[in-house]
Amino acid sequence: MIHNINSPRSLRKREQKRELIIQTALELILEAGLAGFTMHKLAEKMDYAVGALYRYFKSKDTLLAAMQRQILSEFSQCFIQTDLLCKEQYQDFSQKELALQRIWLAVEIYLNLKKQAPSKFYLLHEMIVSPQEILSLQEGLLVMKEALPLLRHLQELLTFATETKAFREGNANQRSLLLWSSVQGLLPLEKLGRFVPGYPFESLQTALLETLFSAWGASESSLKKVKIENQKFIKSIGFLSQFSTLSEGAS
Questions:
Q1: pTM of the full predicted structure?
Q2: 202 DSSP 8-state letter
Q3: CB 102 within 8 A of CB 157
Q4: What is the distance between the alpha carbons of residues 51 and 110, in angstroms, rounded to a whole number?
Q5: Which residues form the HTH tetR-type domain (predicted)?
Q6: For the domain with range 1-58, which CATH number is right: 3.40.50.300, 1.10.10.60, 3.40.50.510, 1.10.3720.10?
């Protein structure tokens, strides 16, 4: 019997196999670290022949890039959907307050993704902060193409904050990069909680946002209101529980 490899059933099975490989690779990276990840170890974990993996991904680079693109796509959907929920929830807010609320929430989402999807977050974080060139230029460009909507979304939020006078005039592109890099720089400090019980990581997170927002012109009264409402909003939507694609094991 001859099987049509391009039939809907065959294509669906192939996609399911790719998803399984990606999910298992994420688990392995979380266990062994990105530096310890190899196609041989992945094949061993899945009880596959190494050659079988290369039928779905032609190289380790291709697999890592596919993983990153998928994660970025999921994160992007999460940011956009939560932003829409935020705008619906706070229609009675002033435009200034809404602008601050949306930016603060975007940062909260990113930081909490670490708890919701640790292996996905770890891979993305390592790809961003590692000084090593993990991907080839060709694969890296494909990943960057997927990352651009996220960066544009953050820039749009900061532009909106300037237009509504929540922030004073400034370069939205520069501010988005400062905000992004500041949040990334904060993450390693969370490890101190392993050695110093009760280490106030969350208060540092709040202090960082307050410092940046104040420096860009946000009023103290608006910041106070946004901090309170942000916590209420996160609890009211069960935070990320509705975004099932982000949870570990959902792939």
A1: 0.79
A2: H
A3: yes
A4: 36
A5: 15-75
A6: 1.10.10.60
